[in-house]
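Hi support team,

I submitted a single chain yesterday and got back a structure, but I'm not sure I'm reading the C-alpha cell output correctly. Could someone confirm the output below corresponds to the sequence I sent? I've pasted both exactly as they appear in my results page.

Thanks,
R.
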Amino acid sequence: MDAIVSWLTSLFPHMAAPIARLIVHLVYAAILSFVAPVVVVVAFTYMERKVIARIQDRVGPNRAGPLGLLQGFADAVKMLTKEDITPVGADRIVYNLAPGLAVVGTILVYAVLPVAPGVIGADLNIGILYVVAVGGFGMLAAVMAGWSSNNKYALLSAFRVVAQLIAYEIPMVIAIIMVVLAAGSMQMGQIIDAQNVPFLFTLPVAFFIFFVATIAEIGRSPFDLLEAESEIVAGFHVEYSGFKFALFFIGEYMHLFVGAGLGTTLFLGGWRGPGASEATILGVLLGFVYFLVKTVFLIFLMMWVRGTFPRIRIDHLLDFGWKFLVPVGLLALVAVALVLKLPFLSSSVLKWVGMLVANIVVVVVSLTAVSFAARRSRSVALRGVAGTER
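Hi R., thanks for writing in. Yes, this is the structure output for that exact sequence:
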C-alpha cells in the first residue's frame, strides 16, 4: 500500500499522502465490490467449462466471441433479462435478503485477504478469526433462502446446508488452528511472513483437510448435495430466477475464489515469490501475479475434482466429515502442538522437519486405522452373507 501511495503522490506532487491513501482505499473497495464479482464470475465460469470439457473429451464454449470468450457475458444478459418471480407463499423480506447476503458475506472476506505486498483492506490482528466469523453468512443465506421459499425441496436443501456445512466447518477450523499454531499469529500478514517454507510442505494434513472442507463449504461436486438436481431439483435457490439467481451464482464463484485465496495465504505463502516486495510498485505487481497464479492453480484443482469424482450420498458425506476428517484433524492438531512445544526443536528448520514428520505419522496411523476398519467391516459382511446362504 505504501508503494502505491508513493507512486500516486509522485504522479501528483500536490496531493497529500492522506488523500492519496484515501483514494487508494476507495479504489480498492470499488474493485472488490463491483469489478471483482463480474471478473471472477466471467473468468472462472469460462475456465470451468473448458476444464470440464477437456476432462469429458468435449470442446466447451466456442461460439460466443473468439474461442467462446463472450459466453459468460451472454449468460449474464440471459439471467438479468429473465422474469423475476416470487412465490405466493414466500416470506418476502427474508426471501429477498438471502441472495444479497450470499454475495456480501463473500465480499467481506476480501477485506482481510492480502492479494499483494501491502495490498490488504485491513490487516487485523485477528484476521483469520474474522474470516471464520463472516464465512458463516453464506450458510445463513442458504438457510434463509430455503426456509423462506415455501418449497419442500428448498426446505430440504436448507436442512442439508446445516448438516453439511457444520460437519465441514469444524475440520476446516481445526486445519486453520494448526496454521495459527505454526505461524504464532492470527494476522494474515504475519502468517505469510512465517512461511519461509510454505505450510503445504510442513502441514500437508492440514492442507488436505482445508482443501476438502473448502470444496464442501462451497457446495461443489462431489459435495453438491445442497443442490442435487436428481433429488431436490436445484436446492435452496429453486424458486429464484433472474437477478436474484444471478446473485447466488456470483456468490458461489466469489466463494470459490475466496476459498482458493485463503488456501494460498495459509498454505502456499500468499504473494511471496522472487522479487515480490512492498518497496516498489513492480514488487507489488509481482506479488499480485504470484498470488493470482497460486490461487488459480488451487481453483483448477477444485475443478479437476469436480470433473473426476461423482456425487456421494448424504450419509457418506456426513460420515466422511465427522468420522474421518474430524478425528484425523484432532490427531494432527495434537501432534503439531506437541512438536512446537518440544524444547530441543529450537530452530525453525527443526520445527519444520518435526511438523512434517508428525504429519507423516498421522497419515500412516490414519490409513492403518481405515484399512483395519475396512477389513473388519468386510469380514462382518462376508460372515453375514455366509450365514444367509446356510
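A quick pointer for reading it: The two ends are 77 Å apart (CA to CA). Let us know if anything else looks off.

Best,
Support desk
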